[in-house]
Design goal:
The chain has 271 residues and is α+β, with helices and mostly antiparallel strands. Helices cover 44% and strands 33% of the residues.
């Protein structure tokens, strides 16, 4: 292996390690903020709506003052949650006033997300190693060609597992629709619910109009499913979510069969 390749892998390992350290330190700061919060008043100075294929969100800028110094940060929230010139309570780190978040948006990063990030970074690093070693021998070239198929299979099953685990393990409650938007193609809905005394919001549900089985209006009651250890991943308990799981399972199974076949062909045929 060339010195350049070794340097690249070492630098990548250092970057990934630093990224993990930053996330761990951020979680430690969030725990400190939750255990000994410093509450100050902030003012919404700007609200801008951003649209993408993934959905709609507001970019909110909030200013607050601590010990005579003013700070301004941008946050993302669901549409219409904040209004310009509105006063909102901010949770600040007791020793680091620059670290703050609106009280209604503040959440401590769960341990499961830290573990998931660590696994993802390790997987990326292994892919980088395979790519670097690809041209060193025919064996490594074949391994690299085959590596993309397990990744595609994993992506299919992660999509299924992400939704199905909430349906299987989720705690059921009743939420209130706080935002909805409809056009000629689809309707988007977000509901607010109480998770053991904490106000939380569901993910944005996007449902094709042709599959709608009810009307969604702000203030209406609707079922919600959430994980007790990660309520921010909640979904609306709607037929659309169950239908999505029913569609994802056969898609994941068929994709796995096809991709395993392709992987076997790449591995066996050259022999």
């Amino acid at each position: 292996m060339s010195p350049v390749a070794l340097f690249f892998l070492a630098a990548l390992a250092a970057v990934f390690g630093l990224l993990m350290l930053l996330f761990i330190l951020r979680r430690r700061d969030q725990l400190r903020m939750s255990q000994n919060p410093r509450i100050v008043s902030g003012t919404v100075t700007d609200v801008r709506t951003r649209r993408s294929k993934a959905g709609v969100s507001d970019c909110v800028r909030i200013s607050y003052r601590i010990d005579g110094k003013e700070y301004t940060h941008a946050y993302f929230s669901r549409p219409d949650k904040f209004r310009k010139d509105e006063t909102v309570p901010m949770i600040c780190h007791p020793e680091k006033p620059k670290l703050a978040a609106p009280e209604v948006l503040f959440r401590v990063i769960p341990k499961s997300q830290i573990r998931l990030l660590a696994a993802f970074l390790v997987l990326l690093y292994l892919i980088a190693v395979c790519i670097v070693l690809r041209d060193t021998s025919d064996t490594w070239s074949t391994v690299t060609d085959c590596a993309k198929y397990p990744l595609m299979i994993a992506g299919c099953w992660i999509s299924y597992w992400d939704v199905s685990r909430i349906l299987r393990r989720g705690k059921s409650c009743t939420g209130t629709i706080v935002w909805t938007e409809r056009d000629h193609r689809s309707v988007r809905v977000i509901a607010e619910f109480d998770a053991d005394g904490t106000a939380c919001e569901t993910r944005m549900m996007q449902l094709p109009v042709k599959r709608m089985q009810r009307e969604y209006h702000p203030g209406g009651q609707i079922g919600v499913l959430y994980l007790e250890d990660h309520p921010a991943a909640a979904v609306i308990d709607d037929d659309a979510v169950k239908e999505k799981v029913r569609r994802l399972l056969p898609a994941a199974v068929i994709s796995s069969i096809v991709l395993f076949g392709l992987m076997a062909a790449v591995w066996i045929l050259p022999q």
